[in-house]
Amino acid sequence: MLTREQMLAAPEDEYMNEAQREFFRSLLEEQAKEVRESLAAARAQLASFENEPDELDKAAIEEERRMALRFLDRQTKLLPKIEQAIKRIDKDDFGYCEVTGEEIGIKRLLLRPTATLCAEEKQRQEMKERNFRDN
Fold this sequence. Notes:
Blueprint: H1 4-9, H2 18-48, H3 55-90, H4 106-111, H5 119-134
Helix pairs in contact: 2-3
């Protein structure tokens, strides 16, 4: 299997060849496994919290519970994105911007393998969001 260095050194005309798709499939499958394990651990942690009679202990436990719930929320949203990325690999759509059809790029995909937008389109969308929010 390819390494990250080999991925970055690959010629542009070999973008999203079979070996690169397999690299990302393996990476995404490993991430999905880790997310499922962390979700199970976070749920077990939430279930283990007990009510403490001491007010200071209650506050600390509530803060830990709040943090665990935020983590669960983020991980719960990440898992479907990973699964969708794997489906895009199966359909040979992986690595291409869903809006423009341009290459997302190996560097961006190594940082965020669930990316569906090229950097330029992502910036355009963020600018629109910022302008909408400011108005």
